[in-house]
Amino acid sequence: MTEPEISERFLEGYAQILAEVAETGRRLTRDELETRRTLGREAAEAGHQLRALVRRHLAETRAAWPLAASGAAASGAVLGAVEQTVDAFAEGFERAQRITVRREEAARREFIDDLLYGRSDLGRLAERATRFGLRLSRAHAVAVAAGPEAYSESDAVPRSVETALLSRFSGRKILLTTKDGRLVCIAPGSQPDVLRYFAKQAHVATDGGQVAVGRPHRGPGGVVHSYDEALDALDLAQRMNLDDPVLYAADLLVYPVLTRDRQAMADLVRSELGPLKEARGGAEPLLRTLSVYFDAGCVAAETARRLSLSVRALTYRLERIHQLTGSDPSDPMHRYTLQTAVIGARLLDWPANEL
């Protein structure tokens, strides 16, 4: 982009100040310094670069160098005036930039809140999205990374992930932010490689944190839908003890299906697993035995190893489950119902919570 031409008004009165300083040796007055600050602010608002403005001041200094400044004392006074002028001008410029940055940050945060919570008029939201590089008429997917601590955008972890993403995908339309202490990445649904790379970088940067990726959805409401799917996947991983570093909502669709009728699932858990409460030590040890048994592919030796039991002790537990529930975990006819009930118990946090 071509640098806009610097107007003469940003140096208005500068040559006259130099001439007066060369004759009198005075310093700039308070009003003159405030005028320079104001001009610096206006130059920043006009879109100029500070380096170009300083260069323009130095060129004007050389062109307007007073003839009276031939002596060492006069030259020193003029150089002092140049220093005061440039310093005041830069102060006004930087102050304007800080205000602009704060406004941009506030606007960006407001947009992200509206986008991820589904607030605001969808048409207006789509218009605002273009300012941040998103075209919400297309499908987008959201990935969310949760680490051992809460993060803000100024922390080192989000910055390192952002640097890695921008280095790899500098030309892509990506929005990286933090929300409720988690890292959030929004990318076009047609570019799954972006979210895969984000997941890899976030997992490392958060020291082994877990990442969930929602499915791509179209339109302004599609972003919040994908975001909710990613959050649900993280919540599901916690309840189901899923330790995969990256979770894909598309791979976990069976779980929301199972809990869509919560009452029916609660009835299944009560009827199938409720009798386990009669066991010595309560239902939890036997429920964990079933969970590990199914996770191990119903292989007794592997289950015993994971539970730090002998195969004989495991066999006793499975027989006890059969006695209490009437369902045999080793029988394929009973296995599906039992496994579904075990999944339901984990989703509903039973027996810790009464159903």
The helix content, as a percent range, equals 55-70%
What does the largest sheet look like? Answer: 6 strands, mixed
Proportion of β residues?
5-15%
Quick check: average pLDDT? 87
Descriptive account of the structure:
- It contains 14 helices and 6 strands.
- The chain has helices at 14-24, 30-45, 50-63, 72-117, 122-129, 156-168, 192-205, 220-240, 254-258, 262-273, 284-295, 300-307, 311-325, 332-347; strands at 139-146, 175-179, 182-188, 210-213, 217-218, 246-248.
- Strands 1, 2, 3, 4, 5 and 6 form a 6-stranded mixed β-sheet that branches.
Provide a short characterization of the protein structure:
The protein is of the alpha+beta class. 59% of the residues lie in helices and 8% in strands. The protein is built from 14 helices and six strands.
Question: Keyphrases for this structure?
Answer:
single chain; 6 strands; alpha+beta; 355 residues
Provide the fold topology.
Blueprint: H1 14-24, H2 30-45, H3 50-63, H4 72-117, H5 122-129, E1 139-146, H6 156-168, E2 175-179, E3 182-188, H7 192-205, E4 210-213, E5 217-218, H8 220-240, E6 246-248, H9 254-258, H10 262-273, H11 284-295, H12 300-307, H13 311-325, H14 332-347
Parallel strand pairs: 4-6
Antiparallel strand pairs: 1-3, 1-4, 1-5, 2-3
